[in-house]
Structures are given as C-alpha cells and as structure tokens.
Amino acid sequence: MDLRRWESGKFDFRRSVIILQSIGSFSLIYALSNYQLPPIGKLVAMASPGRASEFIDFYMETLNLKANTVSRIRHEFQKYAKEEVDNIQLPVFVEKLRVPGLIIHDREDQQTPYQNALELHKHWKGAALHTTQGLGHNLRSRELVQLVVDFVKEKPIHLANH
Length: 162
Known about the structure:
Layout: H1 3-8, E1 17-21, H2 23-34, E2 42-46, H3 52-62, H4 67-81, H5 90-94, E3 101-106, H6 115-123, E4 127-132, H7 142-152
Parallel strand pairs: 1-2, 2-3, 3-4
C-alpha cells in the first residue's frame, strides 16, 4: 500500500484485495455489510465462522470461561452490534456484498465447521469456493498461497471442492 496516497485520502480501495482468516474475515464482512466503507476490489475469506455465537462459544470453551463472564461478553457484544448475538450470521451479511470473493475452508477444520463455507458460498454471489482436506483451521500450504496469488492477479484458478 502506498502510505502517501493513503494519508492524502487518494487511495483507491477498489483496487485493493483484502485477505483475512477466521474472525478477521467475519469482522470485515460484517463491517462491509453494515457500514458505509469504501468499496474494495476483492476479498479472500479463509476459515470463517458462520455466526457470532460460534466464536463466543469457542472462546468460552477454549478459555474455560465462566457463564457469568460469557453473559457479560454477549451483553457487550450485543450492545455494540445493536443486535442479538444469535442473529449475527455471516450468510445474511454476504448477501449484501458486491465484491468478488474467494472462500477457502478445510473439511477437517476443528474450530469453524466446513458447513460455514458452504453457506457462505450459497449466499455470496460472485464468490468461488475452494475446499481443502487435512490443513485444518490454519490452512498453511504453498498451494493455497499460489491459489490466492492467482486469484489476486486474475489468473484462472483451479478450485478443489472435494
């Protein structure tokens, strides 16, 4: 990114590609569909949760949080989002997106179910789905890096949907 153009307000986000994983892609899709942000060129969403309640439950279990703590987190989240946590669902938000996308998800992801990717793909017009096997949530692979590079450069991409 050219920082001088960014600081001057002349940066053209329509030429940008944003690549995010997990809660990062969830957050950006939520923001793009709920706020008037500059349009972006492309979006790569990797291993995205499908619902806000999913990642709250995940952190509750992973961090062994007490019910009272989780209740407070949900309350603060709902206050900020101005919606019930259970109503914050990515498939609803992607229907508003008008940006080309690439969804990448592993069938064996233990943190965010693969079903999320299928739902996103069903509701996000203009997005392609690439399914991996055996990479888990982190999705570390040279082949995936090349796939994303090809998507960014608008080269033909070879999608795997096992």
